[in-house]
Specification:
The protein is an alpha/beta fold. The protein is 57% helix and 11% strand. The protein is globular, with a radius of gyration of 17 Å.
Amino acid sequence: MDTAVGTKSVRAGSRSRFLVIEGCNGVGKSTTARDLCGRLDAVLFHYPPEFTRFRQEADLDARVSALPRLLYYIGATLHLADLVRGQLARGNVICDRYLASPLSLLISQVALAEPEICRLASPFEPYLSVPDLILLLTADYAEAEARIRKRASETDAITPVQRLVLESPEFYRNREAALRRHARRLGPLVELDTTGLSVEEMCRSAWALVVQALG
């Protein structure tokens, strides 16, 4: 199922660009991704809603063991890569999360040893569309925690991963480090620390980094 938002066409003669936004919970990924989509006339992809729905209904992050979770995450990412590949023929694409996100989650939970996760995932990586740029958003733990609590109070909902962040600063820091390692493997990487930035400042800073990196 196509999960694109706001399909637009790229100008004739220009090459489509593929940008990935990565980061832990509470750093501003979704806000930044939406803003960059408007600036780049891009289509925004997330993990497919079927994947998200099954993940929630099966309580995947809390009740399913590490190996089948990893395989499910890889399958969802391969499907996402197909959606990206099809859209790149028509215009720019931004992904809110890609393969580094599920890998970093399992690594930071110490669910499987990192070398084993890499061994299992690496045969599938050549199939993925390679990002022109990965933008890794970071923030200090206190700010990310405050943003998550604010959002939870507004929606009256919290995910298992958000709960892990609130319960463990170590989990948050370990995941950020794992995201950095694996995002760097999967494509060109730039970072933006969103600590203390307003929404407007965050979006302007992200755009400046993208312009500098992609011209």
